[in-house]
Amino acid sequence: xxxxxxxxxxxxxxxxxxxxxxxxxxxxxxxxxxxxxxxxxxxxxxxxxxxxxxxxxxxxxxxxxxxxxxxxxxxxxxxxxxxxxxxxxxxxxxxxxxxxxxxxxxxxxxxxxxxxxxxxxxxxxxxxxxxxxxxxxxxxxxxxxxxxxxxxxxxxxxxxxxxxxxxxxxxxxxxxxxxxxxxxxxxxxxxxxxxxxxxxxxxxxxxxxxxxxxxxxxxxxxxxxxxxxxxxxxxxxxxxxxxxxxxxxxxxxxxxxxxxxxxxxxxxxxxxxxxxxxxxxxxxxxxxxxxxxxxxxxxxxxxxxxxxxxxxxxxxxxxxxxxxxxxxxxxxxxxxxxxxxxxxxxxxxxxxxxxxxxxxxxxxxxxxxxxxxxxxxxxxxxxxxxxxxxxxxxxxxxxxxxxxxxxxxxxxxxxxxxxxxxxxxxxxxxxxxxxxxxxxxxxxxxxxxxxxxxxxxxxxxxxxxx
Amino acid sequence: xxxxxxxxxxxxxxxxxxxxxxxxxxxxxxxxxxxxxxxxxxxxxxxxxxxxxxxxxxxxxxxxxxxxxxxxxxxxxxxxxxxxxxxxxxxxxxxxxxxxxxxxxxxxxxxxxxxxxxxxxxxxxxxxxxxxxxxxxxxxxxxxxxxxxxxxxxxxxxxxxxxxxxxxxxxxxxxxxxxxxxxxxxxxxxxxxxxxxxxxxxxxxxxxxxxxxxxxxxxxxxxxxxxxxxxxxxxxxxxxxxxxxxxxxxxxxxxxxxxxxxxxxxxxxxxxxxxxxxxxxxxxxxxxxxxxxxxxxxxxxxxxxxxxxxxxxxxxxxxxxxxxxxxxxxxxxxxxxxxxxxxxxxxxxxxxxxxxxxxxxxxxxxxxxxxxxxxxxxxxxxxxxxxxxxxxxxxxxxxxxxxxxx
Lengths: 466, 406
Hints:
The complex is a heterodimer of chains A (466) and B (406). Chain A is mainly α. Chain A has helices at 18-30, 35-61, 76-100, 110-131, 158-191, 195-204, 212-247, 257-284, 292-323, 326-337, 341-353, 361-364, 367-393, 409-432, 438-443, 445-448, 450-465. Helix content of chain B is 71%, strand content 0%. Classes of the chains: A mainly alpha (466), B mainly alpha (406).
């Protein structure tokens, strides 16, 4: 028997039946999109197009059209790459780690978080493919047989490890997301009226029947994939942090990078999930499923991961002083007071101070405030990567190489273009896929539905009286 | 209703006294034999280092158990409610462990032992034979400021642990109200904040400062993961033993399974942090940092590999399957080995910076003194267990835990 404590707040508001859940979640797929959707979609596609233009210009002309220069040979490309990978992290955490911890509230957000992961990793991949300068030779990133000549990838480089880590991560995330979608595609298929959409969804649902054996297999494979994904949550961003810790400037690194990058990734990913879910919730009227409690839980994750990041920043500063090593101290002094001090203080404000505001219950349950803060957090996390790269590279060991970095319109165009691409994909997804994992959600209705919980409380009181 | 009042079996009590006797004899014998006349700086350092290692190791288990207890409240976790009293009993070793630490710190300040290089007389005075420019540059962090922090850590940790336990026992008699629970949730949130900062800073102050010149930003988290897994193992051992004696009827196999998962997961966390710290230092090859591992590589190589092997490979292979995590016999064996593995990890943190090249390999000194502290630790845990009912009453999550299945 499963028991749920009376003090736990309901996760599905109102008196919902299974049928109503189906209706609520399938509505956007079966219905027509409203004008807001078309407006958002147009803007996204246009931005995306602009990004593609800048991308084509880069490929046609060469990487010299970027702002990167002799001293700062890495800038927005790696910053954007890590930023997107970090955003993708929350999807894996929600679907894998929260599944292992049996957190029921993840069911309202896991589908969209996983979709977000996949789109974010695709955006990240663009920068990997592009930053080599000659994307048509990118297959050289993989170890190739010797017939291709004696040029081998450098196995000592974390950048190569990244190729494996990120591609594994992408593959597992897609499989995980898809497996979860199968029962929901079955549901859409069963309700589809038009023959074509029925055929398409029938194909997508892999002949899902919903029998006990199907469910048992489904549960089993979910657990196995969760077990596989959990180490990936750590490995991907640890290796990304190695890129920075081992390659930026020889002789500088800090050991806290791997865990704090993982935490920072979850931090930014949850912020992006909030940005998206708050819009989806409003536009699709899903207030009964993505409740204030869900938002509060997500905000608490933001406090925790944001505080871990904050502790790590302060640890770095302290240990730089404690070490007594001049170069170590300069690395941080330069960030906080050097030519890019403004970026450093934006980072500090957005990442360390602003999430602490969520200690106030009033603020973490306020939708408007949460929405604003979720964007602030992602601005901060973008600057975190920028601060590690650019201010460091513009002040390396030989003062003759010291120079500033100025992004060109192409840098900005590609970055904004990926944001356009991300939203284009997300909007298409929101029209064709069930945005909430309804099959899983139905499994908690009896224990965590508001009406059902009230019923159970009444029943408990009755049996006390007798 | 099963028996909730634990009485200490006399055999168990006898066992702890025997262990303590071994410890006392070992300490005395160590002081008598641990002399290195050719080195004037050597003041029975190995014996003191051993006492330090064991004082710290068991204190840290208490602290990590207190953290684990707070974590359950802060995360609204219900599954562990049936074993709450066990966690509380382990957490309440904390004040005893801290007494040992305090005593050692005072003796160090009186120059009875030389575990801390920065405590040496004249270390920051130019002209003194002990002068060390590297330490002098940061002496402001040590001295009175170090003592102030030390006192604050101790007071803060004990206060929260004591308060959480007090509310828990008071809740047993408060029928029809959840106020004690909500109080503990709030307290735990603050405790987590305090712990987030002090777990790192105390690790720097008490352990990292043994290798006074060396530094690593990850050190605090790495050390904390080790003490956390040791605490989890202690809790598992107590559950298994109490269940064998016929107590803890309500603790289901699923709860034990979940504790097994924690042991498995945190073993990985430890390995991850160990590897991250090692890999980055090895890769960068910066002399100030790499010296730490060089010392270990040169004088402690077998032990270094043993620690990694035991704490990583062992749980990974043996605890992977579901059945293993539900098998009491398996949990006991694997738990015992990893427990020793993490004790050896603390040995590896302390010995190279204190005994250094005088090290001759593990001997009866290490094991004898460890046995003594272990006896004292178990003795206190048994007393803590016997002082309260083994299961909480009126807890809002109790029903969830009793019906917990995975």
